[in-house]
Design goal:
The protein is an all-alpha fold and 124 residues long. Helix content is 80%, strand content 0%. It has a single domain, classed as Methane Monooxygenase Hydroxylase, Chain G, domain 1, CATH 1.20.58. The N terminus is likely disordered.
Length: 124
């Protein structure tokens, strides 16, 4: 294996590890709208906004990983094993990105449900 192939292998494995380097935020704990106070709901809103900001950063990191992996594959000239690892890194990053989008949609939907429950329990 020449130095160029070894360098490409290191880059490829680095991109697989790069997915792990992206920090996935924890979903916030949401208040129970039916029994929450206004302060609880405001704290919940703040937690959701903090989560969303962290999730955007996480998705940017993942996007960088899959964009880099995609570019390496398009460049060509990769050894078969390096190509396979690069494709795995791409697929892992895309899968994690899609999961992050779904999680954010779920959190937002759940918080909206809690807001409706809060309003129903506290009319006026």
């Amino acid at each position: 294996m020449n130095k160029f192939t070894i360098a490409l292998a290191a880059l490829s494995l680095g991109s697989a590890a790069a997915v792990a380097d992206c920090t996935k935020p924890e979903s916030p704990t949401l208040p129970d709208g039916a029994s929450a106070t206004m302060d609880d709901m405001l704290a919940g809103q703040k937690a959701v906004k903090t989560f969303q900001a962290a999730n955007v950063e996480y998705m940017k990191c993942l996007e960088e990983v899959f964009t880099t992996a995609e570019a390496k594959v398009k460049e060509g000239g990769l050894a078969e094993d390096v190509l396979a690892e690069t494709q795995k890194a791409y697929e892992a990053a895309v899968e994690a990105y899609n999961a992050a989008v779904s999680t954010e949609e779920t959190v937002a939907g759940q918080f909206n449900t809690e807001i409706r429950e809060y309003k129903a329990a506290n009319p006026g």
